[in-house]
């Protein structure tokens, strides 16, 4: 029995660019691979063309028709297309014009599958006999209904009953025609059946949802089939004359239109989480994006481009997304209980720059008002396909047309929407400009035909009188939702009323060549060269190979264009002969572009014969003067290179130089406004708010918010290697920070009898924020906790987000024990900052808050420090991580590159600068080659690619220029690879931390050398120091004055007080002097 994949496709209904599913029978929810597809009328025409596509896409196919000879020919064609030896491809000869024959055919097709009904029924069988009504007898009228309606209705009846009985979530596809919607003279015995078939399909579309059976209908235009040729023999002459301009479409094109599906995302079933390889497979098969869980997103870091991934979250897990995870996806799909725009807007601020999808879990049907609200928010509504319908909107289903028009707005007095009509099969060529109304849009969506709004005559059903009808492939709104684009397949004489293909003149370029070749294939005169190419395959192959070789040999721009044109002509001739259109080629290119797994791309052996090289001067190869990174492959030049932008400082104007020093602007006001409601909640509700936020953002059900010492042995149990590493880091950091502490008060006698003193006191209560979420950061706990411990802070509150089970990671708990933390607060984000700033029932209020965090944490810190009720200060403003590396010719390219990348991997907004001191072009190329090689070896290569792309190489002439630029830039981390590094250090004025020499990587300072890694960014190194022991202390001054001292100093003070008009100040001295 054919297997089924353990996932389902969910239709993502984008309200701004919508591909209407009724025009593609293979919607994103359904994949034909390994499915059993039953095709009636499958021996010729549309049925056979569709069967071919199904076979190519890995389906098991059964075709049914009456003529056994034609079935045999069809099976031979299908067998030649199979993609797997396991595919079942069968044919059955039955008459389907009665219930018995239809049931027997379906039973026969089910036998190879142990009686299991086919997964999908494509009902293409039917026949027409065009005549005038008065020329038909009653038997002909009855036969017309049988061949147009019952021949499909009987098969659908038998198939649906089997699907329901066997509980198969199947698919039924009826094939109608344009006569299902409108009729013409001569079709009176056929159109009624097609109208009835459309009514049956509409009714079953809603009824069969009870059984998880999808019902759709396709409405092709006139097709050039053997059946159509027979019809023409029966047509009255008058009818032939009326239809002579109606050019039929080929059945292959109709089948492709049936198969063509919308752009789709894969939404895996949570019960069967996919592997990394499965995600890659879905993308390779054509999925635009895959929706992934937070856990899977971490596994995909650096493996798949962010534009291919959407992160699945609920409102409770939004705060757990770190900057690193956010940089690995292009969007977020948020599952919510309902459409709460205030909540969604606050969460969306956390994901700026990413697409935002909202999937309400409530059973309530989305309203047009909620769709409009989401559109204004810049969010895309996700609607289960079970809630969508082509019928009228009801209490349980939303009409797709209503959903599409809901967010549209018109800036015209008449309320119409300017509409550009483009040709899908002509590379998107514009056909003309029309207008649409909400009524015409809805009808076009529901019928799949081009329907517009005439400003004079009302609804305009394109081709209703001329026969130049349109199949609509997709509708999309522009960025302002006030104008539209219809992508269509145009039939008949063309779009323009003047009989041309477009309203902008005749076709040219490749579409014109394609049209000419298609015409020549049908009617090229005997002896013409094009006809000769169509008939002589060997000649056509030889010309393609000849032109390809001439293109490879061409050198000038003109020659390359000339030879490419010849090659395209012969290649397109091959394509047209094989029934391949430009649209097919474009579709293949689009599918290739979606692939994420790449083949090596090597040429086949017959094309890799070595050429005899031209005589070249001999050049002695020099051994590299610096080692390459261990195990690094040889670099090759390709478009995938990861490289930095280079500028020469000597050629920069003052304005350009100032621009080099800038960082991204942080919109702190916006973030403060977003985090304020969270802070206010904690301030007013205390622990209850913390518990609610833990459930909402951390998915943790807490009973208490604080862990107090003594900490249990199991909570601090660690792997011995990790424990030893933390212990060594603790020792180094403690040693350096204890040396910073003041040993004695500063005492100065400023004048005889006047002694001034300054002494340090610890800040009594401090709060340390240690980020959590998807990362464990014991290093940050050490960097903040040790100087607090050394300074003698009496109360140390360590805050970090809880894990889903409500616990804190043992690494952080072990550090909390080492530093003597008085409390561990199980909270993250703005709520943790608020709890420490104001205090709660169990969380002690602190006097100063330290620590890095995401934009929510930074905004909350900035908010509370300006609130006089909080009476709390913070360590420093925060921004993206940054490094500036200064290197001359003594710098090791591999080391320099590694230093740059160590910061570039933090996030796509990391700031990385190389100041190149007198480097030659060759040495600079070595460094860039090392950056590319090492970056490609990293798991986070995609993040590095983005950050490096925005990074900078600044070329300077000497050390002095380099140091001057560095001081102006004021980097967080400064790394010096100079021959006279210690001498350069004497001139460094602005930097968070400096790393000197080839064996001092910044990573050591981040973890364990002893210096602190909490440093000023964004140029704040001009004003701020990094966190140190003094950050956790305050200085108090005192003075003691003797009688002699006051006698000497008093007159000075009285004079200055009188000068300022502060009489009481002077009087405080006078009363004392009076008694001396």
From TrEMBL:
The chain crosses the membrane at residues 6-26, 172-190. One of its GO terms (molecular function) is phosphoribosyl-AMP cyclohydrolase activity. Its cofactor is Zn(2+). The keyword Transferase does not apply. Its EC number is 1.1.1.23, 3.5.4.19, 3.6.1.31. Gene3D superfamilies: 1.20.5.1300, MazG-like, NAD(P)-binding Rossmann-like Domain, Nitrogenase molybdenum iron protein domain, Phosphoribosyl-AMP cyclohydrolase. GO terms for biological process: L-histidine biosynthetic process. The keyword Transmembrane applies. InterPro entries: Ald_DH/histidinol_DH, HisE, Histidinol_DH_CS, Hstdl_DH, NAD(P)-bd_dom_sf, PRib-ATP_PPHydrolase-like, PRib_AMP_CycHydrolase_dom, PRib_AMP_CycHydrolase_sf. It catalyses: L-histidinol + 2 NAD(+) + H2O = L-histidine + 2 NADH + 3 H(+); 1-(5-phospho-beta-D-ribosyl)-5'-AMP + H2O = 1-(5-phospho-beta-D-ribosyl)-5-[(5-phospho-beta-D-ribosylamino)methylideneamino]imidazole-4-carboxamide; 1-(5-phospho-beta-D-ribosyl)-ATP + H2O = 1-(5-phospho-beta-D-ribosyl)-5'-AMP + diphosphate + H(+). Pathway: Amino-acid biosynthesis; L-histidine biosynthesis; L-histidine from 5-phospho-alpha-D-ribose 1-diphosphate: step 3/9; Amino-acid biosynthesis; L-histidine biosynthesis; L-histidine from 5-phospho-alpha-D-ribose 1-diphosphate: step 2/9; Amino-acid biosynthesis; L-histidine biosynthesis; L-histidine from 5-phospho-alpha-D-ribose 1-diphosphate: step 9/9. Residues 433-504 form the Phosphoribosyl-AMP cyclohydrolase domain. Residues 596-637 are annotated as: Disordered. Keywords: Amino-acid biosynthesis, ATP-binding, Histidine biosynthesis, Hydrolase, Membrane, Metal-binding, Multifunctional enzyme, NAD, Nucleotide-binding, Oxidoreductase, Transmembrane, Transmembrane helix, Zinc. GO terms for cellular component: cytosol. In the C-terminal section; belongs to the histidinol dehydrogenase family. This is Histidine biosynthesis trifunctional protein.
């Amino acid at each position: 029995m054919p297997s089924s994949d353990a996932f389902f496709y969910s239709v993502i209904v984008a309200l701004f660019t919508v591909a209407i599913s009724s025009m593609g029978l293979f919607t994103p929810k359904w994949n034909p691979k390994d499915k059993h597809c039953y095709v009636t009328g499958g021996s010729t025409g549309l049925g056979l063309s569709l069967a071919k596509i199904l076979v190519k896409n890995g389906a098991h196919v059964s075709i049914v028709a009456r003529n056994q000879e034609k079935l045999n020919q069809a099976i031979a064609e299908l067998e030649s297309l199979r993609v797997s030896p396991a595919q079942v491809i069968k044919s059955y000869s039955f008459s389907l014009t009665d219930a018995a024959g239809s049931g027997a055919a379906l039973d026969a097709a089910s036998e190879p599958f142990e009686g299991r009904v086919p997964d999908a029924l494509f009902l293409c069988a039917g026949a027409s006999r065009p005549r005038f009504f008065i020329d038909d007898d009653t038997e002909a009228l009855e036969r017309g209904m049988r061949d147009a309606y019952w021949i499909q209705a009987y098969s659908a009846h038998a198939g649906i009953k089997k699907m329901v009985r066997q509980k198969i979530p199947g698919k039924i596809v009826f094939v109608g025609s344009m006569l299902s919607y409108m009729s013409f003279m001569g079709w009176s015995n056929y159109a009624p059946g097609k109208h009835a078939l459309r009514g049956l399909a509409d009714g079953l579309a809603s009824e069969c949802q009870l059984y998880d059976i999808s019902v759709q209908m396709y409405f092709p235009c006139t097709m050039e089939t053997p059946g159509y040729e027979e019809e023409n023999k029966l047509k009255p002459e008058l009818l032939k004359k009326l239809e002579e301009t109606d050019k039929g479409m080929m059945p292959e094109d109709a089948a492709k239109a049936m198969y063509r599906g919308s752009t789709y995302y894969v939404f895996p079933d949570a019960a069967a989480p996919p592997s990394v390889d499965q995600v890659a497979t879905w993308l390779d098969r054509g999925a635009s994006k895959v929706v992934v869980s937070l856990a899977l997103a971490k596994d995909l870091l650096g493996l798949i481009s962010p534009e291919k991934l959407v992160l699945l979250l609920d409102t409770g897990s939004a705060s757990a997304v770190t900057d690193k995870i956010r940089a690995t996806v292009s969007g977020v799909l948020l599952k919510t209980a309902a459409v709460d725009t205030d909540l969604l807007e606050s969460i969306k601020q956390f994901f700026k720059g990413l697409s935002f999808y909202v999937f309400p879990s409530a059973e309530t049907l989305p309203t047009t008002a909620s769709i409009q609200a989401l559109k204004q928010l810049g969010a895309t509504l996700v609607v289960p396909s079970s809630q969508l319908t082509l019928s009228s909107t009801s209490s349980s289903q939303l009409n797709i047309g209503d959903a599409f028009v809901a967010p549209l707005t018109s800036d015209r007095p008449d309320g119409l929407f300017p509409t550009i009509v483009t040709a899908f099969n002509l590379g998107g060529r514009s056909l003309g400009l029309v207008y649409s109304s909400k009524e015409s849009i809805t009808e076009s969506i529901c019928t799949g035909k081009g329907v517009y709004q005439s400003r004079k005559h009302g609804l305009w059903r394109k081709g209703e009188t001329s026969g130049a009808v349109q199949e609509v492939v997709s509708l999309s709104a522009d960025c302002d939702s006030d104008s539209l684009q219809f992508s269509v397949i145009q039939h008949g004489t063309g779009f323009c009323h003047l009989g041309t293909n477009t309203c902008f003149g005749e076709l040219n370029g490749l579409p014109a060549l394609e049209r000419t070749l298609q015409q020549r294939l049908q009617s090229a005169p005997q002896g013409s060269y094009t006809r000769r190419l169509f008939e002589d395959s060997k000649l056509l192959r030889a010309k393609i190979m000849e032109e390809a070789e001439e293109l490879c040999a061409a050198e000038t721009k003109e020659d390359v264009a000339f030879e490419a044109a010849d090659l395209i002509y012969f290649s397109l001739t091959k394509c047209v002969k094989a029934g391949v259109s430009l649209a097919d080629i474009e579709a293949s290119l689009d599918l290739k572009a979606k692939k994420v797994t790449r083949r090596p791309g090597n040429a086949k052996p017959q094309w890799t014969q070595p050429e005899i090289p031209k005589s070249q001067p001999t050049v002695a190869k020099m051994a590299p003067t610096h080692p390459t990174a261990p195990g690094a492959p040889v670099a090759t030049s390709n478009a995938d290179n990861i490289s930095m932008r280079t500028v020469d400082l000597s050629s920069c104007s003052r304005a350009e130089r100032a621009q080099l020093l800038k960082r991204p602007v942080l919109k702190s006001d916006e973030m403060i406004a977003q985090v304020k409601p969270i802070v206010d909640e904690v301030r007013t509700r205390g622990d209850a708010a913390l518990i609610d936020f833990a459930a909402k953002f951390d998915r943790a059900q807490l009973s208490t918010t604080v862990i107090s010492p003594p900490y249990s042995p199991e909570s601090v149990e660690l792997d011995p290697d990790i424990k030893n590493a933390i212990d060594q880091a603790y020792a180094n950091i403690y040693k350096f920070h204890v040396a910073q502490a003041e040993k004695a008060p500063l005492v100065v006698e400023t004048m005889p009898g006047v002694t001034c003193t300054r002494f340090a006191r610890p800040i009594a209560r401090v709060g340390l924020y240690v980020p959590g979420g998807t990362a464990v950061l014991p290093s940050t706990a050490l960097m903040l906790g040790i100087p607090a411990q050394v300074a003698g802070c009496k109360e140390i509150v360590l805050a970090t987000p809880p894990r889903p089970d409500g616990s804190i990671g043992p690494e952080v708990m072990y550090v909390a024990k080492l530093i003597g933390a008085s409390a561990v607060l199980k909270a993250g984000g703005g709520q943790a900052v608020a709890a420490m700033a104001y205090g709660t029932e169990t969380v002690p209020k602190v006097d100063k808050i330290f620590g890095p965090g995401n934009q929510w944490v930074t905004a909350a810190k900035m908010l509370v420090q300006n609130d006089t009720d909080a009476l709390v200060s913070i360590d420093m403003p925060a921004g993206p991580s940054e490094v500036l590396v200064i290197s001359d010719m003594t710098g090791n390219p591999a080391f320099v590159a590694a230093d740059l990348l160590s910061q570039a991997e933090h996030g796509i907004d990391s700031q990385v600068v190389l100041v190149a001191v007198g480097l030659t072009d060759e040495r600079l190329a070595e460094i860039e080659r090392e950056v590319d090689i090492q970056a490609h070896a990293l798991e986070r290569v995609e993040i590095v690619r983005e950050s490096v792309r925005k990074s900078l190489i600044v070329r300077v002439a000497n050390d002095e220029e380099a140091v001057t630029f560095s001081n102006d830039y004021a980097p967080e981390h400064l790394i010096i690879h100079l021959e006279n590094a210690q001498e350069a250090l004497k001139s460094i004025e602005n930097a968070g931390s400096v790393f000197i020499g080839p064996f001092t990587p910044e990573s050591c300072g981040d973890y364990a050398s002893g210096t602190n890694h909490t440093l000023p960014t964004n140029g704040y190194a001009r004003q701020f120091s990094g966190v140190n022991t003094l950050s956790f202390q305050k200085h108090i001054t005192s003075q003691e004055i003797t009688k002699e001292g006051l006698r000497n100093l008093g007159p000075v003070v009285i004079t200055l007080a009188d000068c300022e008009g502060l009489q009481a100040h002077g009087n405080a001295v006078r009363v004392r002097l009076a008694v001396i």
